[in-house]
Amino acid sequence: MMKYPYFYGMLMLTLLLAGCAGDFEKINTDQKNPSLVSAASLFTSGQKYLADQVNTASSRRNVFKMYAQYWTQTTYLLAPNYDLTYQPVTRNIFSGYYSQALRDWQQCARLLPDEPNEPAALKNKLAIIELLTVYAFQQLVDLFGMVPYSDAMNIDNLYPKYDRGDAIYKDLLKRTDAALSNLTADAKSFGAADLFYGGKVGAWVKFGHTLKVKLGISMAD
To answer: Which of 44, 46, 120, 200 could form a Cys-Cys staple with 104, CB 3.0–4.6 A?
Structure first.
């Protein structure tokens, strides 16, 4: 009688081992957190962060509509009273632009040459990324004055120098002109991955010229 429990035990162990002989890597791969991403998804991610930051109603990330008296609050009055010391508003803005939007677009630009693209479409995509990068840095300078720029976005440099705002504006204007010269309105770009203009290059040309006006006003002031 003792042989039967032993036999069934061995049978169960054999079946268990046979059932575990599948593709462990496939089973253990988190489908919601991919290790590889496309350039288009990084482009979209950067746009979403930028739009969220500009439009959020969170007083921990964006208090400027309260400062301009577009909005106000009745319960928490520190933000409407121009108090920036009570929570990390400036830190959230500063770190978010660098670690999310600008970082996503930097990685996107690095991946694009290795993906299948027509030459004109690739130039358009890189130029659009450049315009968005200029816009993000322009906002950072508007808010903070001196910010990391010439040494920024280098993961090996943990202590980038802070550049003067006026010098950054001048370089951003040059970068905008260069990006505009690389745009071809009748060629493709990011298509549906472009949350702002749906891949319409002509709209990005208008954006670039508007950006030049904004930079010019900032430099004149």
So the answer is: 46
